Amino acid sequence: MVHADDAALIKRFNKGDPEAFRDLVDRYKDLVHSVIRQTVPETNQAEDLAQEVFVRIYRGLDGFRGQSRLSSWIWRIAYRVCLSEIERIRRDRGIVSLDEQEFAVNPKLHPDLVDGSDALDNLATRDLWEAIFRELPARHRMILVLYYFRQLSYLEIAEVLDRPMGTIKSDLHRAKSALRKAYLHIKPSSK
Q: Which residues contact 46 (CB under 8 A, 6 or more apart)?
């Protein structure tokens, strides 16, 4: 399942090529930063989190067996690092209610994750969707981003999140329901 370019990169890394890991970082840094921006609140820790992700990739790359795409493996590592950061924030701030959950998800939609539809070009619409996403837990937000904005299949999402496909389908259904509920709660009333 590993693409030829990634397989060559991994082979170079395993042979001790010092440039191989730099090439991997260059190839996947946008992906890692995208996961961080979509999962963790705006923070001055984004660079530290990205560095932690790449440290884990470096330590684990020799154990990567190629049973999934390298990008899926990297998504999974980045997502887990972000979830650990969210848990750390929750511990530091104490338990929060759903209404106080703003710090647990980044309320901004980033242009690299938007599919370019005209609906999000409208600032009022964009503000509405940002408010709706702010209402969702990070796990729901991430699966919606993977499905709608990244347009990954159920199988690809299962690889990224390292969960069974049935769980992904259930989680996506719950996330859609939560999105619908948040939309109904936040949407401007039509008069």
A: 33, 36, 37, 40
